[in-house]
Amino acid sequence: MIPAFATGTPVTGADLGHALGALLASGTAFLSTLPDPVFFAPQGTAWSPAGHVRHLQGSTEPLSLALKLPRWMLGLRFGHHHGSSRSFAEIREMYLGHLAKGADAGRFTPAPEPPPGDPAARRAEIMRMWTGATVGLQNALQRWPEEALDRHRLPHPILGLLTVREMLAFTVYHTAHHLRRIAERAGGNGQPGLR
Prior knowledge:
The chain has 195 residues and is mainly alpha-helical. The protein has a single domain (13-186), classed as dinb family like domain (Four Helix Bundle (Hemerythrin (Met), subunit A)). It is built from eight helices and two strands, in the order αααααααββα. It has a two-stranded antiparallel sheet with strand order 1-2. A hairpin with a 3-residue loop joins β1 (153-156) and β2 (160-163). α3 (49-67) packs parallel to α6 (119-141) and α5 (88-100) crosses α8. It is globular, with a radius of gyration of 17 Å. 31% of the residues are buried. Mean pLDDT is 93; it is low at 189-195.
């Protein structure tokens, strides 16, 4: 059975942080069931599970770093948002709409790697880096009051300027999306060619 990697519809900072933690836990548990050759092998024309996890780490880490900056710096660089953030569902639909139009990972595409000499060690390193990026984001998020999540903005390479709450909603959905792609393809139900 293919895991659902359910996200619910997180709204608050605590909800978003919890959803990230739940996805990390369920994703780690599922990935541990894949043998090393499957973890490192491309899934048809799509990335390997290792590539997906490296992509998640590489796209989560910058957000974690941004949330550790003084908020006044973000306001100075990206301006302020007035009003409420868009919902989790709106961010999800925006993202899926861009994917349907051909958007790709761009500079967040995982660089090709040769087969590892020690697959178990490389796999442990990849998983440790993703865990570190996710936990780092959860920890950084705890320093943010709710109103600041709607007031401050960050640039997304596909979706443009998003509030911090919207960026976190994207990160939750994006994580679930990639874990689902891995699971679907590993179970034989994936769509070849989709990243």
